[in-house]
Every structure is written in structure tokens, then in C-alpha cells.
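Posting this for the archive.
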Amino acid sequence: MAATSARKAGSGRHAGAPEGERPSRLVRVLIPSLLIVIWFAVAGVGGPYFGRVDEVASNDQASFLPESADATQVSERFVDFVGDSQIPAIIIFDADSPLDESTLTSLSDAVASLADLEGVNDVSPLIPSEDGLAAQAFMPLSTDAEIGDLVETARDSLRDDLPEDITSHITGPAGFTADLTAAFAGIDGLLLLVTFGVVLVILLAVYRAILLPLLVLTTSLFALCAALLTNWWLAKAEILTLSGQTQGILFILVIGATTDYSLLYTSRYAEELRRNTSRHAATFAAIRGVVEPVLASGGTVIAGLLCLLLSDLASNQSLGPVASVGIVFAMLAALTLLPAMLYLLGRTAFWPRRPRFDPERSNEAQMESGPYALAGRLIAKRPRTAWIVCALLLAAGAAFVPTLRADGVPASEFVLGFSDARDGQAVLAEHFPDGSGDPANVLVDEGRLQEAADILLASDGVSSVSVLAADSPSGSAPVTTDGIQPLGPPGTPAPEPTVDAGQVLLQTTLTDAGDSPEAENTVRDLRADLGELALVGGTTAVAIDTKDTSIRDRNLIIPVVLVVILIILILLLRSVVAPVLLVLTTVLSFGTALGTAALVFTHILELPGADPSVPLYGFVFLVALGIDYNIFLMTRVREEALHHGTRVGILRGLSVTGGVITSAGIVLAATFAALAVLPILFLLQLAFIVAFGVLLDTFVVRTVLVPALTYDIGPAIWWPKRLHVDEFGRRGISDEEPVGEEVTPRRLEPSELHR
């Protein structure tokens, strides 16, 4: 009888909703259909842009530096001396036996033929090594050319005509750029395929349904299409910068975030379908239940990402708005497209496990049974022991953070696996001065040329110095302590250096490879010795300025992100104690993830180190995304506490959100782990830190540490607000009523749950 009455009360509408509030059938079908059509149109336009990102993307590290950096100033002035912007490529031949004259002639002809390639500015004469086993040539490429394609074409052209006992490589900055471009080539294909495949498998296991996982993946794909379309045009208008690294992170972030928000919505929608016979009532109740945590979660991530605008590196600055655009569309898709599709399909979307209308039990069974209800009961027995043990274990992992070597890695280590440029650099170092072909550029006033040259030549890390000279056959002239040297027989006058705006450009060949720590030390020493006399640029200087800027950004942005997220949580939870504790647990979790990464990178994977931006990116994503799960949990705890009291609300909140948070955490960890399929050191390290950290948040922090800590503190968690029961038996959180003892909750009628 009770069940019959309940069905009558809820039949055709949300419990307690007047019949007159229901819109017409036409409107109820038209609005979701229109939303779906709009999203299909956006996806149809944005889809083709997956293959066009390289039209607006840039992977030039020098372009990411602030204009105030010495390397940037020298790079901008370099064009004034050589006529256009160039990136040097070094061609290196290696033989098993000494190269004879005929072989050198044929190799010279092969090198000279490359000058006909579009984008090749010039090719230098072939320079044999002193041991006769190798030869090199310099090939400056226009930065307006497609460097990756141009270098690969040149490599293929050289290999076609080589004798069997001779190998060729193209290295230098252009060679490494080409290898990096090739490594990013799998973003549109392999990365998306792996990501969607992994997510599909997880969703099939979570939902145990056929149609629902496809709807969630469709939502994620359409959100990604919209985000990519928007960012492409923003990059086209030069409002922001896209790089292969930023593109990969955007793909993963949008898919992971959209799937997480979709999991939250589908879980609440299924819960409401058990309370309502009407799809209309269930849809609006579900949207009301998730809109606050989704908007708060997405807003927190966006706020954290936009803190990257404080960075001096253009690559970091661009990631903030690029990823924020992705999060905006992730939220929009999860709150409009997915509800529209589920509204039209109703319970059919969950087939074969359709949620049945059962207002008597609603989700009470889930709150009283299952692994998270059991975890809650165990926590309630010894909450203090639980959170102290968790905190100690996390602190033990965080203790290894100082062992993480995040002070930069050589450019030759950026690409994992095979790298022709890395192999070529090894050959070059074996037969020529290590810094050959990749000089440090020194900009100095014409009248102080010799003074600067003497300081450079006095350094043990400098092999030779030359000055750019347009009237020299080679384009430059050697400089010694005796001045500029002639390039001909005795009596030949020395070439006149090229002068622009009263300055000349010295090119300094280092004794060590340009991307080595030794070369970086040399350039730092040269800058200190030259002082205000000259500016030092070049590839090594770019790496130094990028590293120093990254460290400055990391030290500035991390505290700002914490403050911003703390403010958002305070506004969301209307509390101070709870937000502070949530931020502290997230920071502790990040420290554990970073400490574990230090052990894995050094002792298991034996990686050469990490870029300074790895901890920064890991922090922004882990803290912002980790707070997501805090928001999912605590907003539901607060909702339950209003009806049942704080401690009971904690257990009920854990029980009802545990499954969806775990599913969301596994999906997000899997999507970030997919970044490891790209052979890029930075992405591999970021993938491990974020994936491990998310799983740690999911299974330890959100399941044990936060519930145990809040349960132990009790009602004081809402300070300065206070949980109270008014004269009508209604619970609320207020700063006016005194804190009383928690009242044993009574079982509420279904209609009361939505008052």
C-alpha cells in the first residue's frame, strides 16, 4: 500500500512538483533535440581541425622566452645580421675508413644539391675532420619552412646516394626540432585512439551497459572538437600559442574532465530515476544536484590553470587559456549534451541494468551496503587512527621530493627511443669539437669587439671565436687575440665585420656540446665575465634562460594556485576549516606523488632528469583535479549533513560518491597515462606524476584520509558556520545557532529529500 501511494505521489512528475510546472511535450522534446543538433554541428565543423593543428603550432623553444631574456634579444638581432631568421642544421658523415678525395667530392656534391630544397638558405662547403673519418657541413634553414618535413627530405636525399660504409645524420637545433616534431606526430592518431580505447574499456566495466559508455565518449569527443576549433582560431589570430606539448595535454584534459563530469551526472541521473517515474523530473533533479559541484570543480581547474598566465614563458602562458577553453566545453557538454541524450533515451540508456523506480529505497541500499559503506563503518570505529596512519604513509613518500632532479635535461634527451639528431651529435662529438655548428652568439658594440673576443678566448670552455662578415667567402672571419684574421694567403686583408646599429655579432664555438651541462656552465661564466659588455645568446643560452624562467615560475605560481583554490573552496563550502584541510590533504598527496616519481625516474626508469616545468605542471593538474574529488565528496557530505548531521552525512556522502569518484579517478588516471605513448620525456614524466597522484587521491585521500579526518573533527568542520536543528526539526548550517549534539537521524520520506 505504501509503495502504491508513493508511486501515485511521484507518478509522472518529480515528487512535490505541481503538474502545471511541466512544460508541453513539444518543448520537452524540442529543447534536448535542438541541443543535440547544435553539438553535432559544432563537432562537424571542429572535427577536421584535428589534422590542421600543425598549421598554427610552434615547437620553437626560443619563441617561448620573454622578450627581456638575453637569448631573446640576441635572437631578434641575429636576423639583422644574416638577413632572415634561421635555424641551423648540421650534416655529419661518418666512415669506417679514411675518406679519400673522390669520396669527399661525391659527398660534397650530395650536400650541395640540398641547396635546391625550398627552405634551405645555403649549404656550407664540406669540412673534413682531422682524423679523416668524418666530414660535416652547415645548412641553415628558414624558420618559415616546415622544419620537420624539410629535414626528413634532406635525410632521405643524403641516404639514397651514400656508399655502404658511410652513414649520414642531420643534427643541430634543426635536427632535434625535426625529431621532436616526428615524436608529436602521433597526437592526432595514436594518442586519441589509445585514450578513447582505454576509456571505453573502463566505462564498459563501470556501467556494465552498452549504450551509456558510447554516449559518454560522444560527449567527450564533441567537447574536444569544440575546444580544438576554438583554440585553433585563437592561435590563428595569435591570441595564444599552440605547441605539440600543449595540444597533447589539451586532448587528455578535455577527455578526462568531460568523462569525470559525465560520470557524476549519470550517477545522479540513475539515482533520480529510482526516485521518479518521470524522465523530465529526474533530469532536472539530476542537473540541480550536479550543477554546483561540476561548475565549482571546473571553475577550480580553470582558476588553477589561469594562474599560469603569471608565467614568463609563453608556453606556460598559453597552456592556461588553451586548457581553460577545454574545461569550459567539458562542463558545457556534460551539462547540456549528455543530459539531452539521456533525457530522450531515458532508462533505455542504462540497458541492460535499467534503474527501476523504487522511491522507498532510493539510494539507501547503496548507503547501507557496498565497499564504501563498509569503509565508512570501519573509519567510524577508529577515525583518528585511520587518518594518522594515512598521513604518515603519505609523508613518508613525500620525503623523497628533494631527490627529484628537476633542473633541466639536454635537448638530445627530449625524445625517447631513436633520434637521428642524437646519434649525429654523438658522431660529431667524436670527430669535431663538441660545440661545432651550434655556437653561442655574442652581441657587442663594434668598438669593443676585441675586448669581448679576448674575454671569450680566455675561457677554457671556448674553442674558437669568429665574427660575422658579409664580404667573407664563408660568411664569417676568425678572431684571435691579434684581431680579425685574413682568410687567404699572407697579405690578404682581413674581412670587415658586418655592422648593424653600431654592433657586431661574434660566434663562439664551445668545447662541449651545446646542450650539455658543461656548455651551460661555460655560458653562465661568460655572461658573468662579460657583464654589461655584451649579450650572449644561442641554443645553450636559450636553454639556460628557459630553465631559469621555469624555476622562477614554479616558485611564484604554486603558492598562488593554492591561495586561489582555497578561496574558491571557502566560498563553495561556506566554511574555513574544511577548505584548509582539503587543500592540505591535496598538497600532501601531491608531495607523495612527486616523491614516488623521484624514486621511479631515478632508480627504475633511469631517466636523465626532469624539466623544471614538470613539477609545476604536475602540481597544477594534481591539485586542481584532486580538488575536484574533494568537491564531489564534500558537496554531497554537506547536502547529507543538512538532513542527517555531520558525522552521518560524512558516511552517507562517502557511500554514495565513492563509486563515482573511484570511476572518475581511474578514467582520469588512464587518460593521463595515455600521454606515455608519445616518445617525449616531458609527457612521460607528467603522465606518471598525474596518473599516480590521481589514483592516490582516489583510493587513499578521498576514501580514507578526508572522511576519517572530517569524521574525527565532527561539526566543527563547518566553522565558522554551525550545524543546528531549528524548532521545526529542520537542519541547517548557520553562524547564529549554537552547536548542539548530533541528533540521531530519522528516515526521511522521498518527498522530503528535495525540500
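Residues 2 and 278 are 19 Å apart (CA to CA). The chain is about 60% helix and 10% strand.
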